[in-house]
Structures are given as C-alpha cells and as structure tokens.
Amino acid sequence: QKARSATKRFEPAVTREGRSIKVFANAADLNTAQTAKEEGAEGIGLLRSEFLFKDLKPSLEEQQKAYKEIFELFDDITVRTLDVGGDKALPYIEIPSEDNPFLGVRGVRLFHTHPELMEEQLHAIFLAAGDKPIKIMFPMISSVEEFTQTKSFAQNVAQKYQLDISHLQFGIMIEVPSVLFLLESLNDVVDFYSIGTNDLTQYLFAIERTHTLLKADALSPALFSAIERILDTATKPVSICGELAANKEAIPKLLNLGMETFSVSPRSIAQTKEEIRDV
Ligand code: PEP
Ligand code: MG
Question: Which domain of life is it from (predicted)?
Fold first, then answer.
C-alpha cells in the first residue's frame, strides 16, 4: 500500500465511479508547505498563519516575505487570518483572563480587540498576493454580520493602502455551530466555505478538543448530519480541512455526501488519495 501511494501521489484522486476529488494540504509554515508539494498536494486548503506570530510580533515586511514564499508554491492557496486566543496565547496580546478560553477572544474576534494587528496582517497578505487570486479565510465566524463587517474591514485596509483586491476571494471556516443555521444568508456574501471539524466537533459536543479525559466521537452521526446540511445548503464551494478529512472511515461517507475537496496534513496526502481511489 505504501509503495503504491508513493508512486501515485502526484496523480489525481479519482473514485471508482470516476469522480475527481481535490486533495489539498493544511500547511503551518514554509516547511510544511514544501513538504505538501513533495507529497503531491494540489494546493493549500488551509494555511495556518499562527507560525509567524509565535514569540515576537512580526513586521509587515517579515510577514509579506513569508506569505510570498508560500504563495509561490501553488496556484490554489487559502490563507487563514490569525487564529490565536483561547488556549493559544501570544505574549504581546493582552486578552482578559477568561473562564472558558475556547468561548472567548479567539479567531476573528481579534479584529475587534486588536484591529492594528489584523490590519497589518491583511496588508501583508494583500502585498504578498499581488495579482494572484489568493483566498482569504476568516476563522471562528459565528454570524453573517461578523463576516460582512470583517470583509469591510479588509476592504478598508486595501483602500487605505490603495491596493486592488477585487481578484481575492473571502470565505469562512465553518467551525461554530450557529453557522449551520445561517447558510442561506451566508451564501449571498461569502465566496467559499471550509469545514473545520476539529472545532466544529468541540462546539457541537461541548467537549474541549484538548481535554485529557473526554473525547468526542469523531464519527458521530450528529457531525455527519451537520456536514450533510452544509453540502446540501451551500451554493458556494465547500471543502473540509479538519482532521476528519484524513480519517479512513470518514472518507467514504464524506464522498457519499458530496464532498469534492479535502485538505489534510502534508503527511496524509498520499494515503488520503489512496483511500479516495478505493471508494
Ligand atoms: C478546525 O478547527 O478543524 C481547523 C482545521 O482549524 P484548527 O485546527 O487550526 O483550529
Ligand atoms: Mg479551528
């Protein structure tokens, strides 16, 4: 099996019925993006931008350079704006102490608490993208207004620096359950969706994803119902980028529900393609 996937990793994943499925990578820095390329990824479905913000606040130039190096590797790239807060604290970001950090200031909520930081990140992404049609994704969106306000924020940043961003797409992670009931309205405003099953599972079952004793059932019918609802209701492209996308048992079910784009960790690319070919 291993040898087979090694030779076929650059070939597309086609099911036995002849459906072509895209297999993208979740990248976390330049290194993992390069590994994704070597492993046969067709693009980056999720670029987690947190790596740049770990210890010291990066400058605009540092960010621009780092994004550009990664943007040059693939034609199809989705970059997610900073998703820290909660359990992932940053030394230079002040967030009030929270009883339930996973329900606190995290993801897109930073646009309210730290607008300068988010402005600089968007500015750097716009500069690095240049003419390339990069996709920009907001994490932890929980309402339609949150998306439209954040997109307006981005448009204002572009206007301030006189940058044309009409070729860029703006989409959301589906990881907060309220979004499941807002899809009809979101269809009118977003360009794409990506299902983050790690957080979606955490919030659906009210079990911390990092809990040492408790673990939500990754294959629960409740989660698949949620995914089915998304695929049936969305009129914009949907991909899946949580851990579930590389789960052997989940892959046939996801294909059956109509999923066409999977984004998995670089080391799972070849194996995920093989699983898809066997369906
Ligand atoms: C997710 O929540 O499923 C996801 C892909 O994002 P992260 O694991 O970075 O929160
Ligand atoms: Mg998440």
Answer: Bacteria
